[in-house]
Amino acid sequence: MSGNTVSSGAFSAYVTVSGGQTENVLNSGLAFSTTVEAGGALDLSGFSFFEQVGSGGSETVVSGGESLFAQIAGGTQTILDGGLASGASISSGGAEFVSSGGVASATTISNGGAQFIYQDGSAASAVVSSGGVEVVSSGGVASGTTILNGGSQVISTGGSATSAVVSSGGAEYVSSGGVASGTTISNGGSQFVYVSGSAVGAVVDSGGAEYVSLGGVASGTTVAGGGSEIVFSGGSAVGTVVSSGGVEVVHGGGVATSTTVEHGGEIDLADLKFSGGTANINGSDVLTVTEGANTYTQQLAGSYAGEVVSLSADAGGGTLADIVCFASGSAIRTVQGDVPVERLAIGDLVVTASGKRRPIRWIGHRKVDCRRQPIASEVMPIRIRAHAFGPEKPARDLWISPGHGICVDVVGQVLIPASALINSATVAQVDVDEVIYWHVELDSHDILLAENLPTESYLEMENRAFFIENTMVALDVGPDARPKTHDDFCRPFHVEGALVEVVRAQMRLRAKALGWTIEEKPNAGLHLDVDGLPIYSATDGPTACFAVPARSEDVWIVSDVSRLCDVSESSDPRRLGVCIGSLAIDDGFGSTVTIAPADPRLDEGFHYVEGPFWRWTNGRARLPAELFENCEDGFLLKVALVETPPPRWRAPPDLDSAGSQLVA
Question: ∠ CA 561-545-573 to the nearest 5 degrees?
């Protein structure tokens, strides 16, 4: 036939429209299961169900027309002003064009299919997968699109998309004036914002990632636990909220500002080489991170009074900043539930580990400047990871002072100081600039529940003066009372010995059950810190070679560290970096000076000599300036390693550092 017209109120079924033919379905007409072949056309102002448009065929839906469940496999479907298409399936090179007031709903796009939304067209609830693509441009609007399994959504040149869901290998691309609002990205999904594209209010859930670069802007993003926002050169992120377990990664040339970092959230400065630097947040909530001669600043949003920043190396050698709240304290079990320690008051009733209700007699706290302490390890806080001692023990990460007693049950309950249980994995001492410690005293020594972990209450041992609240008069103490000691504790107190080793072994097994693994790194991240700048070896193998520039003053041999007692049954508690067999300084003019491990000038950062041939560093060992003072044009430092560095713990990839809190 040359054409077929389905008039108002008429019905056609199973019609095949071949090349050069057209089927016109008029207002209130109904066509069922039409097949449109190459060169054929279906013009629709009435209704059509289950039509099939093959390669080279076309369907046009105009005002009053409605297409339901069309299959567009290689052909095209065009939806114009007043037209509606619902439930279409686009594949195999097929395309759906939605413009000029046309509306598409619940389209499925896959296997080379494409949907184009432009010039006031709109599409809702599309599903894009397996090589399908949805393109939104020039005034087009897409809402509620689901993108997964290799599908993609492209938003550009005046297009906008709202409330998309991107997961499982799906991707959303926003560029050239396109705008994406309220996108949810999770479980392998990605959002790319670049070249004047804009993303507003995205939510990046676990496994999702938002990439911002080259003139792209992301504003109001929320990065949840396990999610990440990555800001590359030329990209800008404004008003991001980094929730517990989430991370905002900022590369050189990228800009992030007005960021809110919740407890357990992280900022990763990927191109700022970690060298054990410093960080702080000033009264204007500006984060400043200094590594050697390089300083990074970022304006934060919110209030960070009493909070500190812990720095560590990220997986690529950059600097990871954990913003941890110490002022708000740990949640202590009370008759009113778990209450942050700073909200407690004298007279409040706590619930002890045995279930007794006991009134608080005294609360003390003090801020400590850790960098000014002569022995920093005596004041640096210890972080106990959630579930380190068992399910919900603690329920969240707990920060505690080194000497604070933890109650464990080993053929009876005992108290062991947190410092004796450090394993550099689930229990680790963390370098911070300052901390605020809290302590709670009852009428007698007892076991409190801090984040559901049994820990000791305060016992006066002539150290009350440490706290600000140190003016209390002990009315229940007689004039001849002796100072209390560990013998007065409510449980036996053990610092070392077989019982402590049993607990440490149990905790190593527990750490492995939580996903921690033990790895070996042949050179333990060995590098130099020269006047604050990192220098890396020019060679691999057992001898590292470093080119030290002229006029260098402070030269440090830096590496990762590990304690054998943390990863094995060894009792060696030393922090071991690399084991050096010899050092050699070559001035480049034929003069080489070899320094033996036993050289007395090797002092700061070196452990004792073991035999005549080797000596361990503690991870940061100074090369005395007198050894290279005559090398005016720089020199080559050769570091010969003779022992494999000790193994170290590797954190599970999905580690959530949520809920970090602290008591004394």
Answer: 15
DSSP code of residue 418: G
Do 533 and 551 contact (CB within 8 A), yes or no?
Answer: no
Task: Give the mean model confidence (pLDDT) for residues 16-36.
Answer: 94
Confidence of residue 662 (pLDDT cuts 50, 70, 90): very low
The residues near 449 (Cβ < 8 Å, ≥ 6 apart) are 332, 333, 351, 352, 353, 455
b/e sequence 378-387, b meaning 16+ C-beta within 10 Å: ebbbbbbbbb
Cα–Cα distances (Å) from 253 to 153, 232, 318, in that order, read 27, 7, 15
Taking CA atoms, 616 is separated from 530, 569, 605, in Å, by: 20, 20, 9
Residue owning tokens 């357990």: 264
**How far does Cα 235 stand from its chain's mean position?**
19
Q: Which of 226-240, 412-426, 622-636, 649-663 has the lowest mean pLDDT?
A: 649-663
Amino acid at 543: T
Structure tokens at 461: 């041992």
Would you say the pTM of this structure is higher than 0.85? no
The residue behind tokens 């100072």 is: 483
Give per-residue pLDDT as tens, 439-453. Answer: 899 999 999 999 999
- Residue closest to 145 by CA, chosen among 194, 78, 98, 177: 98
Residue 201, C-beta contacts closer than 8 angstroms, at least 6 positions apart: 181, 182, 183, 219, 220, 221, 222
Alpha-carbon distances of 354 from 350, 407, 448, rounded to whole Å: 11, 12, 9
How crowded is the C-beta side of 591, counted as CA atoms within 13 Å?
10
* Cβ–Cβ under 8 Å, residues 201 and 180: no
The bridge status of strand 331-334 relative to strand 337-340 is antiparallel
Question: 576: which DSSP letter?
Answer: B
Which runs of consecutive H residues, i.e. helices, occur in 178-258? none
pLDDT for residue 323: 63
- State pLDDT tens for residues 310-326: 677 788 889 988 764 43
Please say if the pLDDT value at position 18 is more than 70: yes
Phi, psi of 499 (to 5 degrees): -65, -40
Q: Which of 116, 82, 111 is nearest to 96 (CA)?
A: 116
CA distances for 156 relative to 233, 279, 301, 631, angstroms:
20, 39, 30, 58
Q: Which residues of 211-249 are buried (b: 16+ CB within 10 A; e: fewer)?
A: bbbbbbbbbbbbbbbbbbbbbbebbbbbbbbbbbbbbbb
Cβ neighbours of residue 315 under 8 Å, at least 6 residues apart?
none
How far apart are the C-alpha atoms of 361 and 342, rounded to whole Å?
Answer: 14
Cα(215)–Cα(197) distance, integer angstroms: 7
Whether residue 20 contacts residue 2, with contact meaning beta carbons closer than 8 Å, is answered with yes
Give the separation between CA 423 and CA 570, rounded to whole angstroms: 12
Strands 122-124 and 103-105: parallel
How far is the C-alpha of 632 from the C-alpha of 487, rounded, in Å? 61
The CB density around residue 87, as the number of other CB atoms within 10 Å, is: 17
Q: Where are the alpha helices (DSSP H) in 96-179?
A: none
The whole-angstrom separation of Cα 493 and Cα 441 is 18
Alpha-carbon dihedral sign for residues 257, 262, 266, 272: positive
Q: d(Cα 601, Cα 8) in Å, to the nearest integer?
A: 102
Strands 349-351 and 357-359: antiparallel
Reported as a single tens digit per residue, the pLDDT across 157-167 is 999 999 999 99
Spatial distance between the Cα atoms of 653 and 639, rounded to a whole number of angstroms: 33
Length of the chain: 664
* Residue 218 CB contacts under 8 Å (≥ 6 apart), including other chains: 193, 198, 199, 200, 202, 210, 212, 229, 231, 235, 236, 237, 238, 240
